[in-house]
């Protein structure tokens, strides 16, 4: 079970003070919870086995393994308040060691102990029974009262608080009810009615009719079932504790820790392996329930004897109840029932929910900070007697992001003045609909759905796609998309109707949050089991049943849908063994969602986020000013239209780009793109193509030369850029938006009317179909490329500049892109394409510009460039011998093989002379034909192994 306080808080708090010091200008006095935690102090420890007398008659002897943590300076002349620290089920005093050290560092004398039946302590497990575990704790209070260093309120009455989680939390509640010497308690993630927790029923029936929570009960029983010790790694210490005086020595062996000992350490017969260290009545109750899947009155009475539910009216100690939202064992309703029962007597009560629990651990550190502050504040006032009375406000939290310091999760806390319970302060209603559906109850509950796994409820989000709601075993009812977000804080309710041929049904009702992509999330794996009786065989005759779902804290975003699932099986619960088929339908009326409007609680992470936001705002404002200055400066430049290029979409004149380190990416590029043309910009890697495009789009400044767009000299921020559409250096989209939303966001940023965007034409070009409504984070590379091309074509710009537009497209899409570009270059529009697919350029482009080593080596119509190719295709009898002959001819070069022959660059040598040399060498020549392809011309122009100077 989780320990009650986070470990090693001193180091974490010291580190966070450094962070807070950098944000002192943000005045949130008292809101940053960790700042209130006192400095770490030194302490010493004493480990010993204490023998106490308890039991129904008070004469049962049991040995308890303990460690006493005493702050340095505590003495008979300087007494300190005390804390009794209890551990979770299956744990030991070692499980809470770090928590004890933290509390001792706060100035409390802390007695941590291993409960009977666990670790090195003796005795049997009675599940926090008032006559056993609770009386054991009373005897420990006697021991604390006798310590000279511990402050007392009277003879035998120590000034003491009790802190514990889960099993230890119930102990704190039961002890406070049984012993009025307890001054304050902090029970965490614990139960109200143990029978109701292990046999829940969400339609209002008593635990005797509840649905057995076999998964958790099996873990619960198994942790205490092994004779002699708890789980591996939880055995007691074997030597000196760290910080213990050298004279303390190892603790004496505790009686009752092995198979040969009985309760209290006396001799006993061999331990029954089916019961281990459980008391006989507890073991018998569990075995009966686990065997039949149903509780009987005697078993329920035994579990309720170990429950705070029956004694809440006797608790006078101020109570801070901490409960986790990620808890399928003891959900939020358990703390809610405890709070209402204790507060009814006028006892001070405060409730705090957090994002951890049995399934979620301590939660994010921001939650730990909040709970540390609340615990320290509660103990300081009600036990130490220092500080103002703590507020009785209700606090809760939900995960909202990541810590700017360590990238851990951040849970934002909220508070309201009055505790609203699980019903919230307001309610939202959401209609769910669906047809009548038949669902099968599998024999012996197999196969069964998996909603959660003990200690790992969060895994439900991963399991839903593997073994969640099984086909044929569940019904679904869904809502329309929510028009606005809803912050759920509490227990939703829903009405269902059911029919069964047997007159009974066990069902599991779940509430899913379904996003627009269809992904469904079950909050922390929480389900509502119901056992219905007296059912008709026809669902039309069934009466509606109201099901109270587990309390949750969740923000359901606008556009999400609610899904109610009614299932017949769940791996964590016992279900009827006989197979049958139920019929279920909506019960009429909406799903009700409780809400609470709270005030956010500042944390160190929140303070730091605001500091970062401030810095980002300052940076953005600075960039805006810089851009505005640059734009104004550029607007002062010549804005006249060059008459020679007024009708030319693009004219590049003597372009040069040289970097500060002397690297020359482009040395002399000069070309034009005219209306109706599709111009291919070609060149080997590093030739300067991308640099030319970057200068063209204003992404970098040229060293020399000019670029004119329809006669306007191009500079960054120039208005004429609005007449250019571009895809350069790959697409960039917001992953949380759909493709269409990205296009619309981009167009809005241009400030132009939506009617000018021509979205329909652009989407037709993209060819994404219904996928345009999906989030782009789920797009493939090819889908993102097509969306980027559509974005470049928004507004049908007069000049379209595309860098590798077919990257990521399949052959049919490439062919369609070829036709799109050719159609686009009409009505005065033009296209400039940079590509390495020479065959596509040859089929798509009307003109080509070939760049090599930062210079243009050829430009003009594609057919002219191809026609100038000097390459020839030779079909020969012996290619190897022919290659050897040709390699000896001056100026003649064999190009890469093509179509089974030799492609040869004759470089001005007459073809007849080449053929004659081959014949003289005895090589048969079957055919000689001109080889006129763009690829050949390209290789002839730049060289087979040519490399540019390195594009940047």
TrEMBL record:
The chain crosses the membrane at residues 607-630. PROSITE patterns: ABC_TRANSPORTER_1, ABC_TRANSPORTER_2. Residues 232-269 are annotated as: Disordered. Residues 650-878 form the ABC transporter domain. Pfam families: ABC_tran, Peptidase_S15, PepX_C. Residues 257-267 have a biased composition (Gly residues). InterPro entries: AAA+_ATPase, AB_hydrolase_fold, ABC_transporter-like_ATP-bd, ABC_transporter-like_CS, Galactose-bd-like_sf, P-loop_NTPase, Xaa-Pro-like_dom, Xaa-Pro_dipept_C. Keywords: ATP-binding, Hydrolase, Membrane, Nucleotide-binding, Transmembrane, Transmembrane helix, Transport. It comes from the Bacteria. GO terms for molecular function: hydrolase activity. SMART domains: AAA (SM00382), PepX_C (SM00939). Belongs to the ABC transporter superfamily. This is Alpha/beta fold hydrolase. It comes from Micromonospora echinofusca. The lineage of its organism: Bacteria, Bacillati, Actinomycetota, Actinomycetes, Micromonosporales.
């Amino acid at each position: 079970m989780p320990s009650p306080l986070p470990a090693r808080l001193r180091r974490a708090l010291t580190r966070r003070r450094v962070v807070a010091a950098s944000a002192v200008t943000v005045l949130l006095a008292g809101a940053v919870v960790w700042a209130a935690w006192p400095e770490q102090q030194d302490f010493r420890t004493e480990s010993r086995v204490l023998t106490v007398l308890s039991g129904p008659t008070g004469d049962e002897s049991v040995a308890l393994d303990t460690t006493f943590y005493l702050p340095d300076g505590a003495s008979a002349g300087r007494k300190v308040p005390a804390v009794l620290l209890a551990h979770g089920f299956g744990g030991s005093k070692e499980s809470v060691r770090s928590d004890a050290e933290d509390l001792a560092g706060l100035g409390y004398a802390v007695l941590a102990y291993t409960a009977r039946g666990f670790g090195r302590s003796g005795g049997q497990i009675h599940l926090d029974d008032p006559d056993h575990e609770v009386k054991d704790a009373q005897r420990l209070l006697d021991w604390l009262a006798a310590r000279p260093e511990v402050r007392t309120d009277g003879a035998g009455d120590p000034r003491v608080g009790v802190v514990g989680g889960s099993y230890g939390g119930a102990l704190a509640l039961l002890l406070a009810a049984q012993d009025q010497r307890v001054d304050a308690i902090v029970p965490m993630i614990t139960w109200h009615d143990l029978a109701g927790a292990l046999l829940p029923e969400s339609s209002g029936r008593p635990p005797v009719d509840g649905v057995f929570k076999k998964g958790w009960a099996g873990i619960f029983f198994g942790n205490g079932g092994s004779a002699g010790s708890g789980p591996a790694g939880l055995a007691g210490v074997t030597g000196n504790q760290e910080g213990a005086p050298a004279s303390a020595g190892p603790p004496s062996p505790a009686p009752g820790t092995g198979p040969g000992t009985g309760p209290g350490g006396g001799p006993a017969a061999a331990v029954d392996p089916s019961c281990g260290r459980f008391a006989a009545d507890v073991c018998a109750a569990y075995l009966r329930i686990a065997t039949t899947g149903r509780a009987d009155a005697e078993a329920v009475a035994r579990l309720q004897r170990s429950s705070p539910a029956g004694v809440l009216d006797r608790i006078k100690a101020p109570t801070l109840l901490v409960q986790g939202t990620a808890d399928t064992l003891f959900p939020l309703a358990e703390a809610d029932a405890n709070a209402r029962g204790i507060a009814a007597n006028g006892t001070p009560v405060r409730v705090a929910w957090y994002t951890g629990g049995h399934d979620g651990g301590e939660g994010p550190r921001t939650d730990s900070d909040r709970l540390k502050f609340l615990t320290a504040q509660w103990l300081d006032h009600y036990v130490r007697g220092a500080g103002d009375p703590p507020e009785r406000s209700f606090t809760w939290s939900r995960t909202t992001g990541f810590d700017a310091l360590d990238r851990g999760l951040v849970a934002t806390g909220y508070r309201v003045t009055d505790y609203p319970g699980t019903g919230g302060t307001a309610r939202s209603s959401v209609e769910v609909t669906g047809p009548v559906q038949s669902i099968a109850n599998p024999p012996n509950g197999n196969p069964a759905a998996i909603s959660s796994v003990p200690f790992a409820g969060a895994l439900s989000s991963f399991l839903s796609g593997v073994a969640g709601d099984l086909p044929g075993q569940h019904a679904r009812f869904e809502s329309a998309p929510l028009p606005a977000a809803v912050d759920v804080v509490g227990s939703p309710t829903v009405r269902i109707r059911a029919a069964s041929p047997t007159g009974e049904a066990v069902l599991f009702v779940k509430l899913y949050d379904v996003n627009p992509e269809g992904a469904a999330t079950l909050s922390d794996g929480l389900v509502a089991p119901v056992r219905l009786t007296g059912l008709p065989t026809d669902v039309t005759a069934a009466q509606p049943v109201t099901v109270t779902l587990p309390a949750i804290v969740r923000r359901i975003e606008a556009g999400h849908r609610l899904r109610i699932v009614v299932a017949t099986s769940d791996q964590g619960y016992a279900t009827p063994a006989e197979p049958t088929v139920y019929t279920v339908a909506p019960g009429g009326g909406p799903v009700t969602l409780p809400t609470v409007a709270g005030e956010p609680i500042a944390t160190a992470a929140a303070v730091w986020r605001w500091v970062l936001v401030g810095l980002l705002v300052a940076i953005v404002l600075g960039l805006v000013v810089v851009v505005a200055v640059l734009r104004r400066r550029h607007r002062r430049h010549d804005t006249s239209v060059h008459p020679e290029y007024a009708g030319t979409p693009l004219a590049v004149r003597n372009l040069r780009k040289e970097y500060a380190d002397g690297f020359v990416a482009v040395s002399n590029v000069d070309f034009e793109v005219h209306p109706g043309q599709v111009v291919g910009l070609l060149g080997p890697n590093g030739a300067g193509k991308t640099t030319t495009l970057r200068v063209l789009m204003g992404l970098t400044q040229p060293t020399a030369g000019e670029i004119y767009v329809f006669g306007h000299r191009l500079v960054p921020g120039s208005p004429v850029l609005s007449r250019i559409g571009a895809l350069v250096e790959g697409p960039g989209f917001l992953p949380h938006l759909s493709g269409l939303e990205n296009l619309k966001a981009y167009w809005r940023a241009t400030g132009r009317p939506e009617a000018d965007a021509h979205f329909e034409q652009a989407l037709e070009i993209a060819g994404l179909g219904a996928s345009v409504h999906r989030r782009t984070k789920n797009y493939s590379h090819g889908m993102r490329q097509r969306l980027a091309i559509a974005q470049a074509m928004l507004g049908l710009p007069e000049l379209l500049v595309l860098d590798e537009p077919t990257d990521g497209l399949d052959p049919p899409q490439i062919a369609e892109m070829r036709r799109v570009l050719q159609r686009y270059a009409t009505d005065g529009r033009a296209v400039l394409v940079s590509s390495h697919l020479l065959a596509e350029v040859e089929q798509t482009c009307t003109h080509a510009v070939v760049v090599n080593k930062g210079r243009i080596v050829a430009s003009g119509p594609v057919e002219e460039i191809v026609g100038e190719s000097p390459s020839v295709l030779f079909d020969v009898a012996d290619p190897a011998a022919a290659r050897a002959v040709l390699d000896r001819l001056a100026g003649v070069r064999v190009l890469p093989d093509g179509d089974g022959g030799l492609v040869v660059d004759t470089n001005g040598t007459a073809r007849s002379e080449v053929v004659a040399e081959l014949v003289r060498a005895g090589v048969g020549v079957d055919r000689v034909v001109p080889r006129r392809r763009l690829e050949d011309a390209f290789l002839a122009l730049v060289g087979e192994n040519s490399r540019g100077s390195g594009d940047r």
